Amino acid sequence: MVGIEEQFATDMNDRYLVREVQKKQELDEILDVIWAANHTPYEPFIQLFFPVLGFTSAHRKAALLESKERFWKQHTADTSSHWLYALDTVTGNIVGCAQWVISMTNPFAKGVPKLEAPWWPEALNWMAVHPAHRLCGIGSLLMKVGIKMADDLDLECWLEGSSMGKPMYEKFGFQSLLKIGFDTEIPGATDEWRRYAHEMTPAAVFAMWRPKRGMWRLESGQEVGLPWSLGSQSGMNGASQN
């Protein structure tokens, strides 16, 4: 494993410092950032991740507390999970976050696992920046640290990015392979289903991939093969971030 603390000492700007989560309190503060980031502007699909079962502040508080417990449980149960956060050294507040999942072996060697979760499968990957600290380079700082971790381990990377995040990911050597839309049409859909589909269907996302060390051409000048053309052995390890 790479020396993460050493990386952080060289991957900071004048105000923001990147660290890795060690305590639950840190991840709790990260969840506060994720909630704020996805409500400014409001992202309808956030109800899929953090269902608020009511319309009062008490219902919202209960949902926030549940999400903090759930994310901590998922994180501590998954040794491949690395939550990074950007700390504002002026205020002492956490202002951005990214979860990188680093797999040194093929996580799907035995096939795709059965998904059992109350609202969403484990091993979610996130990136979020508090609305008050956007356009300050925090997203790029978090990407820089994660990419260095992957490059030090000679891993390829993948993520699912929004239209807003796509240009930043491209700056770090990712390219879009597929645009993924969400088809919510089902036979005999109920009024309730149509309502939820209207209110919570997310915008299309981009499946993006970065080859090892961001090298899209081999030393011979030949273009690197895409994931589906490299064979099963190429998918044995990697780093993912969403």
From TrEMBL:
<feature type="domain" description="N-acetyltransferase">
    <location>
        <begin position="32"/>
        <end position="213"/>
    </location>
</feature>
<dbReference type="Pfam" id="PF13508">
    <property type="entry name" value="Acetyltransf_7"/>
</dbReference>
<protein>
    <recommendedName>
        <fullName>N-acetyltransferase domain-containing protein</fullName>
    </recommendedName>
</protein>
<dbReference type="GO" id="GO:0016747">
    <property type="term" value="F:acyltransferase activity, transferring groups other than amino-acyl groups"/>
</dbReference>
<dbReference type="InterPro" id="IPR052523">
    <property type="entry name" value="Trichothecene_AcTrans"/>
</dbReference>
<dbReference type="InterPro" id="IPR000182">
    <property type="entry name" value="GNAT_dom"/>
</dbReference>
<dbReference type="InterPro" id="IPR016181">
    <property type="entry name" value="Acyl_CoA_acyltransferase"/>
</dbReference>
